[in-house]
Amino acid sequence: AQSVSQHNHHVILSEAASLELGCNYSYGGTVNLFWYVQYPGQHLQLLLKYFSGDPLVKGIKGFEAEFIKSKFSFNLRKPSVQWSDTAEYFCAVNGLAGNMLTFGGGTRLMVKP
Amino acid sequence: GAGVSQSPRYKVAKRGQDVALRCDPISGHVSLFWYQQALGQGPEFLTYFQNEAQLDKSGLPSDRFFAERPEGSVSTLKIQRTQQEDSAVYLCASSRSRAGANVLTFGAGSRLTVL
Q1: A88 touches chain B (CB under 8 A)
Q2: Which string of b and e fits A61-100 if b means at least 16 CB within 10 Å?
Q3: What tens digit of pLDDT does each residue of A27-72 get?
Q4: Which of A32, A49, A106 lies at the smallest CB-CB distance from B42?
């Protein structure tokens, strides 16, 4: 079975601070990795994804994530957050042998103006 | 349509009532998923359809939960004899081809409150 762990449940930052959200997964095989974001009052949206190739992937709004296979990690980063980044962020993994996307518990980010 | 549409957006049910939640996926999308998201938690997988075939229902929490997609497009999630622990947001998602190969597009969800 696959599982996803997000270490920080709540993060509070000031604008312009740097962001790193941790994500670790457990799955023995090849995986696809995702970060989804849910802005207040909106539905889940894809932020970025990793299928193969360059382990450093860039997504929308200046976000990036690095896949480190040896650490089973896929941490999300942004060099300088904005107030509009206030949202809940979910890491997710799909093992190629299975059908379902497994989500972590989410990290609620609040950016103070 | 342009996105995944779910209805109703909000449903309040008395304990013991049956409810039906509808999902209209993006036109032509082969794969359809149902997820359950309890307050403060991440979405939990319920079931998966490829066209009209229900290929995985391992996440359905009890036999009170039933899902169908008879013509390979619209799907309905039915919960019989609702219990308070069923209170959650039920998310539907679809993707263009088979599961695992591409990105899921989510609907806004149906928030169920069982009193």
Answers
A1: no
A2: eebbbbbeeeebbbbbebeebeeebbbbbbbbbbbeebbb
A3: 877 889 999 999 998 999 999 999 889 999 999 999 999 999 999 9
A4: A106
